[in-house]
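re: that complex we talked abt at group meeting.

here r the seqs, copy pasted straight from the sheet so there may be weird spacing, ignore it
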Amino acid sequence: MEQAQFSQLNKFATIEDVQQAMFSQHYIADRSLATAVFLSLKRRKPLLLEGEPGVGKTEIAKVLSALLNTRLIRLQCYEGIDVNTAVYEWNYTRQMLHIRMLEASEVNRQDEMKEIFGPDFLMQRPLLQAIDPNNTTPPVLLIDELDRSDEEFEAYLLELLSDFQITIPEIGTIQAKEPPFVIITSNRTREIHDALRRRCLYYWIDYPTLEKEYQIILTRMPEAPERLSQQVTKFVHELRSLELYKAPGISETLDWMSSLLALDQQELTEGAVRDSLGALLKYQDDLLKIGGLDIGKIIQKLRGAS
Amino acid sequence: MNAQPPEDQEQLTLSAREVEHGERLLYRLTEFGRLLWESGINVGPHQLLDVAETLNAIDITNQEDFYHTLKCSLITRHEQEPIFEQMFYYFWSMRSKVDKKGENANDKGMKREERQMRLPPSERKRLAEHLKTSESRKELRGEMRPTERKQTAEEDIGDSENDQGDPQGTAYSAIEQLRKKDFENFTWEEVQEAKRLMAEMHWNLGQRSTRRKAPARSGSYPDMRRMVRHNLKYGAEMIELTWREIKQKPRPLVIICDISGSMSLYSRLLLHFIHTISNGLLNVETFVFGTRLTRITRQLKRRDVDDAVRDVSKSVQDWSGGTRIGDALHYFNYHWARRVLGRGAVVLIISDGWDRGDADTLRVEMDRLQHSCHRLIWLNPLLGSPDYRPLTIGMKTSLPFIDDFVPSHNLDSLISLGHLLSNIDDSRPNRSTSARRKAVSAWSNRTKRP
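got the structure back, here u go
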């Protein structure tokens, strides 16, 4: 593989640089995560991120594109995604109009007909955009929720991710001048195949520790009162220790925090918690289970601790 | 590849000692890869080469970074993390101390030789069979009851006398009888024969429509790309129409098998059955439970059925213990359902319904399970006997949530299960609303309790 020529990369000579830069984008990364990102930048290998929903997998791609000051190309996967929607499609309407026009004007048709399947009539979809040789800087390619796509699509990605090239029968092979930075996320609703995993660096994003989550709230919501942030963090951690069908992720915590702020709360109170619990828990079972607990007592406990 | 002159020069200036160090690291890395491979993390030479190159990018004297780098390069799943961690500390901290003492250099050489001598269990078994040693027989004897063993011995004598006569005819009728016989009454020979027959069974599972489309002779969606292409020769007058049609794919299958004490007569044979199913179909997830749920999909991936079953028994800790179906299903629903029940999965529960757990829990979890899969099939080995009534609390509670309640006591019943599976279509089975209502009330009862 060619050495990276992309000048923005020179900013990141060490793991600390990456960690610092991510912090400047309000993303608090462990050293282990920073290592993974650093290696993925250095080796230009795709980074496969797994973890519970709402722990900030997709966010990494956004942060990365901001850091590198380059375009973010996002491919949201879904069941049935295929080449036409992910890679390229021919612009049939234009093709047919063009043919009609050729018929009207009596120019050299033989040559013109060949152009029907030329670059002018090609509609680029995210994957092709990502490896377009005309890109001045390699973009960040986010392949989001890969587990939602079918096995066939995953197999197609294998070729793309190892050589960063796409073959269009009518035009030829298109290869990226410089490979894009690829972030793949998965929620594990289906197991990603080993062949794809082997081509990636793997990182499991866990729920954050208490201190880390508190820090995240502070950086993301500097306007929030300190006491409230502390109590919210502790409360969410308390919830995660209970057995819930869907434990709240960081994005739920932030969501809840902003709900509480909208309710003008300075401190956690039982009433406010009950009113806004829907921002934190998204399943009826979980709501009933937590609703059945003595929330006042939990809050008392949190206050005692702080 | 671009040659990189500056780096080449740098390498030339390395002292002999440094080169030796580098080689030693590579050697150690290979050894570590081998250790990971042996402990079940599949690491290939390609990945090791890749890691070696990756290590250039970091400062390897920082142990933390070294650890994270190896970790994110070598593991491919979350489940492997604890194993990796242990192996890492074992190999890079503990072993290196031992190595420094230089005590067991000889020892290590020995071990490697031994390792090469070691054959995989399946090969050893074949070898043993070949040499007519009784090792493999001894292992399987455990599946018979003592009285049957005596019987077998007697039958052995009888068989030799009956050997004359049409061999094909007798074989066929013997198979016919075998197919109808309850697993419970099988002799050792019959168990072997049944296993052989099971291995020959072919499985296919009902198809579901995917959301992908493939070119087809006729279909409901126009294939624009081919159409423009084909009709260029007519000056793009759309004369030949081309089509795409929705693709069909087999549904995923999830098997949850009871291996508690009351099922012990059946469970080993059923494991063989599960092994053939999971090797015959593309997308099968398997779990066993007694008091706790264990996923055995990976163990069953092994080609040789005896190896697979041995692996399963090693990893399962509650063979022939008590049963808490409700708790097992609870665990399944919370930790696995979202990962394996996508794409219209069919769930197969194999259990006799003897349950020592809480009926309310079971009701709630059965309800949830039924509503998150396409079809819920319950196989009950007891159902084969004509006077069986589902009177146990576990069975009575579960029954309203089961789409198909079928026996699994002999080979014939398994064959008809095959027919049932291949006939599953897109239509939704009728599901009882009164059962749902009961489940909801059980659920609120449970949540009200402290």
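couple things i noticed - Residues 16-38 of chain B form the longest helix (23 residues). The two ends of chain B are 67 Å apart (CA to CA).
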